[in-house]
């Protein structure tokens, strides 16, 4: 099976002429010879641009490769812009699998005799179908209520397909890393490894359920974002039951306008939701493309987002958040020196980086951008330019920043689709300044005291004993030091004595050997031997002793 799959992938790549994307001079003669040998697989799409050919090939290869292309489309630091834009058009269109098979999976996973034990009106026709899973509607029987739900079901046998394709991807990545001159910068093996983790995480619906519950808790009672209820008692690794939402797809701009939705507020709230997730919660939805976002119908003048599909999330630690916020603010103020220093301080670029050269490189890239009105500047593309510049100064790939960059591009594109005049800089700057003040000002001190007060209260009763032990140790310290000093002197004296007797016994041995060689066995030779033995005994007795009196 693996051989057939490898043959199909090879044929697809070659018939779309993707081998032309790699200059022949970069390839070893064995691979060039192999390409000529496969003469029955010619490029059948010579009239199409490279990006289009790549997109069509990935769509033909199936869902694993489509998702891989979607991920690559966010890596503008690795791909030419035209190819990245084309990959962003990849559609996750997969025919649904049999609804009765989905029902059997649900019954088996939840240990039900029949789907009717828990659900009413289960619809075998899926509401939506994607490469990893599909969704069915139903009503869940609760103790005192019946609620509308959707049931997400992982495709049967998808794991075997994914693992097989991932192994082939890793093989191709190893070949690319070995033979392509730019293989070190492109890091194909690292990219595939990152993709493997992301894809396998999406296969675990319990993980997705946990992510949804966390996001819902973070935005409890929020008027900006609503996260549907997840019924974790009815969720398993391959099945997830979630509240069915009633919203307008955020991409349906005409319907939103027809309902009188305040598009400016909707766009600005999208930006605020993103920065709140990143800087307040350090936990953000990292797959916020238009297909996963809806708008609630209840209040058009104060619109609220509804999020779904939580398989991919990103996290930032405290240091990353602070450095990122300071970077953004430094960019707002065109303080490129500060940007360069922050990259070094954070460890994103090596310590030996020349700050002046790095600052100059950042200025060269960013100053032309700032010649435009702020409302026309893409925040996401500024971030991409920053990372591309930093990469020339040995900046390693930061997975958490790649997810952040991808999400920011989604949010900015969505915001400007809703409200073309959106000034993301103007919207984001007050939020970042407020957050920084909370992190560094007196509020940060108060919050730190509140956070640590329970720990301090727990340790308070131990403080008197700790002070007493410290004072007692301080009092006995001189005696302990004197004892150690005396022990050191004794050890040195013993070592000197051992060396003295060892040298004498070695000299006696040499003399005895010379006398034995020059003369027959005589009284001087015998006497010298006896003296040598006595000296050796003295050397042996002068060996250092352990504390229990035995020799070492």
Automatic annotation (TrEMBL):
It is an enzyme of class 2 (transferase). Keywords: ATP-binding, Cell inner membrane, Cell membrane, Kinase, Membrane, Nucleotide-binding, Transferase, Transmembrane, Transmembrane helix, Ubiquinone, Ubiquinone biosynthesis. It holds the Pfam family ABC1. The chain crosses the membrane at residues 498-516, 522-540. It is found in: Cell membrane. Its EC number is 2.7.-.-. The keyword Cytoplasm does not apply. It is a multi-pass membrane protein. Pathway: Cofactor biosynthesis; ubiquinone biosynthesis [regulation]. Residues 89-343 form the ABC1 atypical kinase-like domain. The active site is at residue 287. ATP binds at residues 127-135, 152. NCBIfam families: PRK04750.1 (NF003404), UbiB (TIGR01982). HAMAP family: UbiB. Belongs to the protein kinase superfamily. ADCK protein kinase family. Belongs to the ABC1 family. UbiB subfamily. Is probably a protein kinase regulator of UbiI activity which is involved in aerobic coenzyme Q (ubiquinone) biosynthesis. This is Probable protein kinase UbiB. It comes from Idiomarina piscisalsi. The lineage of its organism: Bacteria, Pseudomonadati, Pseudomonadota, Gammaproteobacteria, Alteromonadales. The gene is ubiB.
């Amino acid at each position: 099976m693996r051989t057939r799959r490898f043959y199909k992938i090879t044929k697809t790549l070659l018939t779309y002429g993707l081998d032309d994307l790699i200059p022949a001079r970069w390839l070893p003669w064995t691979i060039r010879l192999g390409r000529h040998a496969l003469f029955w697989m010619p490029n059948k799409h010579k009239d199409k641009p490279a990006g289009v050919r790549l997109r069509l090939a990935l769509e033909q290869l199936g869902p694993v490769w489509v998702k891989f292309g979607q991920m690559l489309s966010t890596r503008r630091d690795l791909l030419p812009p035209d190819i990245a834009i084309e990959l962003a058009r990849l559609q996750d269109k997969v025919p649904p699998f049999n609804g009765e098979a989905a029902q059997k999976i649900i019954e088996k996973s939840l240990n039900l005799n029949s789907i009717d034990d828990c659900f009413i009106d289960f619809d075998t026709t899926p509401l939506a179908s994607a490469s990893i899973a599909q969704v069915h509607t139903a009503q869940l029987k609760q103790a005192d209520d019946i609620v509308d739900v959707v049931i997400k079901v992982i495709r049967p046998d998808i794991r075997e397909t994914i693992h097989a394709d991932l192994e082939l991807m890793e093989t191709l990545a190893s070949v690319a890393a070995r033979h392509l001159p730019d293989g070190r910068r492109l890091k194909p093996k690292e990219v595939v490894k990152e993709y493997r983790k992301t894809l396998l995480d999406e296969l675990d619906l319990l993980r997705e359920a946990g992510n949804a519950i966390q996001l819902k808790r973070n935005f409890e009672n929020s008027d900006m974002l609503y996260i549907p209820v997840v019924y974790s008692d009815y969720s398993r690794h391959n099945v997830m039951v979630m509240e069915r939402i009633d919203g307008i797809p955020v991409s349906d701009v005409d319907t939103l306008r027809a309902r009188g939705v305040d598009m400016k507020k909707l766009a600005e709230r999208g930006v605020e939701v993103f920065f709140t997730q990143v800087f307040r919660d350090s936990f953000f939805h990292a797959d916020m493309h238009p297909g996963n976002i809806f708008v609630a119908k209840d209040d058009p003048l104060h619109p609220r987002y509804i999020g779904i599909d939580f398989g991919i999330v990103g996290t930032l630690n405290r240091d990353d958040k602070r450095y990122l916020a300071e970077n953004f603010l430094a960019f707002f103020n065109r303080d490129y020196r500060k940007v360069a220093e922050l990259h070094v301080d954070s460890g994103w670029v090596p310590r030996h980086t020349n700050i002046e050269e790095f600052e100059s490189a950042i200025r060269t890239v960013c100053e032309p951008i700032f010649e435009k009105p702020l409302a026309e500047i893409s925040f996401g593309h500024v971030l991409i330019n920053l990372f591309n510049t930093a990469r020339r100064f040995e900046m390693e790939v930061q997975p958490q920043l790649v997810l952040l960059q991808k999400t920011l591009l989604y949010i900015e594109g969505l915001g400007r689709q809703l409200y073309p005049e959106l000034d993301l800089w103007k919207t984001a700057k007050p939020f970042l300044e407020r957050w920084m003040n909370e992190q560094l000002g007196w509020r940060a001190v108060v919050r730190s005291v509140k956070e640590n007060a329970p720990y301090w209260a727990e340790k308070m009763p131990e403080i008197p004993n700790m002070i007493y032990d410290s004072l007692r140790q301080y009092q006995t310290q001189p005696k302990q030091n004197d004892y150690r000093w005396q022990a050191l002197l004794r050890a040195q004296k013993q070592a000197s004595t051992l060396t003295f007797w060892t040298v004498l016994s070695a000299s006696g041995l040499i003399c005895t050997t010379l006398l034995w060689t020059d003369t027959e066995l005589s009284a001087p030779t015998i006497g010298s031997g006896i003296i040598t033995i006595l000296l050796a005994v003295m050397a042996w007795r002068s060996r250092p002793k352990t504390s229990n009196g035995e020799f070492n």
